[in-house]
Amino acid sequence: MPRIKLQRFADNATRPDIVEPGKASFGQLSGRWAADFFQNTHPLVLEVGCGKGEYTVGLAQLHPERNFLGLDIKGERIWRGSTRAAALGLTNVGFLRLMAHQLTEHFGPDELSEIWITFPDPRPRDRDIKRRLTSPRFLNMYHALLAPGGVAQLKTDSEDLYNYTLEVLAARPGAAIEVATRDLYAETDPAFAAAQAIQTHFEGKYRAVGVPIKYVRFRVGTAPA
To answer: What are the residue numbers of the active site?
Structure first.
């Protein structure tokens, strides 16, 4: 393993804004993130698959009245997000190194006010459907963790994942699409302004080659009987 990665992993082990296996706080914060980790009573927003933390940090900059947590399994990516948050002096942002399918082990019922899913792997193969972050399996998890009135939001460059997500929501009891578009940055309706406010490096690369960004904000509903 390159020395720089080892140094970044060592950094992560000492950073109070990162929760990961091996730390005393890991697995101990379910239902207590606001009180024990952020030490306030603000609503908690989770980004699932935060990568380098650009979106999590961007949201934290725009909304100091909320807490933001970025989840990713890659320690080096989380190091980058943590480094940027520290440089900006942000205290309302943290990172959790975890596989997404372990969500319900680390958050309590109704603990999240909002979930962001930004440019996830679309998992195009049929055998990987259950690993898509908008599959029924994950929507069931989100339902358990979102507070009443809480929403989830997807931004993606993948037409297939966007279509799949709309199909899953259409079949799900109680699910509701609040806004949706196949070309986010062509929209002038204020309903899309929040999703347009942050553009990641990855997002910009797709736009530069003419790939429109798809977006949907939705309520997850309940699991089918």
So the answer is: 121
